[in-house]
């Protein structure tokens, strides 16, 4: 299975997860609990939405979401997360 063949339904999005930074640009180390507070990644597949939800994100957008949301999926060794559109907290 590859990401190119996937189609999301309703208001779901598939996001490629970025590895959280462990050091700030200024050289400060970030403790692990703080690194895992929110996740950031790139949207790779977007569903069409539904009557109640108009999809705001598009493929290629960088988004953030709380770490308690979504379902982790690994495809070809790459980590992704499946989220509902409402679980996203920010488009970066």
Short description:
This protein is mainly beta and 92 residues long.
Description:
The chain is mainly beta and 92 residues long. It has one domain: GroES chaperonin (10 Kd Chaperonin, Protein Cpn10, Chain O), CATH 2.30.33.40. The protein is 4% helix and 37% strand. The protein has one helix and six strands. It has one helix at residues 32-35, and strands at residues 12-17, 38-46, 62-66, 71-75, 78-84, 90-91. It has a six-stranded antiparallel sheet with strand order 4-5-1-2-3-6, with no helix packed on it. β4 (71-75) and β5 form a beta hairpin. The longest helix has 4 residues, at 32-35. The mean pLDDT is 86.
Write the layout of secondary structure elements.
Layout lengths: L11 E6 L14 H4 L2 E9 L15 E5 L4 E5 L2 E7 L5 E2 L1
Antiparallel strand pairs: 1-2, 1-5, 2-3, 3-6, 4-5
Instruction: Give the distance, in angstroms, between the N- and C-terminal Cα atoms.
Output: 29 Å
Number of helices: 1
Quaternary structure type: single chain
The gyration radius over C-alpha positions equals 14 Å
CATH architectural name:
Roll
What's the CATH C level? Answer: Mainly Beta
What brief labels describe this structure?
globular; mainly beta; 92 residues; 6 strands; 1 helix; 6-stranded antiparallel sheet; 10 Kd Chaperonin, Protein Cpn10, Chain O
């Amino acid at each position: 299975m590859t990401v190119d063949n996937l189609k999301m339904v309703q208001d779901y999005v598939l996001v490629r997860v970025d590895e959280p930074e462990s050091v700030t640009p200024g050289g400060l180390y970030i403790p692990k609990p703080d690194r895992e507070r929110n996740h950031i990644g790139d949207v790779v597949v977007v569903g069409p939405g539904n009557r109640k939800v108009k999809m705001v994100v598009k493929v290629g957008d960088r988004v953030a979401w709380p770490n308690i949301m979504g379902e982790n999926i690994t495809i070809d060794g790459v980590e992704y997360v499946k989220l509902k559109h409402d679980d996203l907290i920010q488009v970066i």
